[in-house]
Specification:
single chain, 214 residues, alpha+beta, four-stranded antiparallel β-sheet, three-stranded antiparallel β-sheet
């Protein structure tokens, strides 16, 4: 009907306005960080390989969690749960996007992950890094996911990394997009064991293209 078409048009227009506002706010944050924070690297990002034993252990946890399935009570217990809402992971009423699943890591494995990866972060930044970092956990993106371009909060993350542990067989390549310190837009497609390091409070990054896969 004409009324429903007008309503849908209003919703789409509001979504466009919201997206423009998010882009503008992200640009303002990026400019502010560029002015007040130092650069630790020439380009702001780099890629290396994570230690193979660590990758294998994390993959075991990932596969075991997927096999256990979904916990409806919000608890992980080694299985999957819905991730708490993240503003920059776009979800809207007109999308078939499914929210990410999440697998919590045991505290001992979190500590091991931080310990094993600390030398790689230190080498990347060419400066001592506090061992009191944060190992977030295992995020499982699902079909139609999109991570908006953003920078991280400088009071929590300055040198960060993403470790790719795998994807379903039907997944198409899903690049991480970064804007480096020289104004270049880079698309990086990770394979199993790749560790993407980046200055997350200064380098604009995200996955703006829709993910196509299970």
């Amino acid at each position: 009907s004409k009324q429903s078409n007008e309503k849908n048009g209003d919703v789409a227009e509001q979504m466009d306005r919201d997206l423009l506002t998010q882009k503008y706010n992200g640009w303002v944050s990026a400019v502010a960080s560029a002015i007040v924070m130092q650069n630790y690297t020439e380009f702001g990002w780099g890629i290396t390989r994570a230690p193979e034993p660590l990758v294998e252990e994390l993959r075991d946890v990932l596969l075991a969690g997927v096999a256990k399935g979904m916990r409806e009570d919000g608890q992980s217990d080694g299985g999957m749960r819905l991730e708490n809402p993240v503003e920059i992971i776009q979800q809207d009423d007109n999308s078939t996007q499914l929210p990410p699943m999440f697998i919590d890591l045991p505290s001992t494995l979190k500590d091991q992950t931080l310990s094993d990866l600390l030398p790689l972060h230190t080498q990347f930044a060419s400066t001592p890094i506090s061992p009191d970092g944060v190992a977030y956990g295992l995020r499982l993106y699902r079909n139609n996911s999109r991570l908006l371009m953003h920078i991280d909060e400088p009071n929590t993350r300055i040198i960060a990394s993403i470790l790719h542990l795998g994807s379903s067989d039907d997944s198409k390549p899903w690049p991480i997009v970064l804007e480096d310190f020289h104004g270049n837009t880079i698309e990086v497609v990770l394979t199993v064991g790749d560790l993407l390091l980046y200055e997350s409070a200064k380098v604009y990054h995200g996955r703006p293209k829709r993910f196509d896969g299970e």
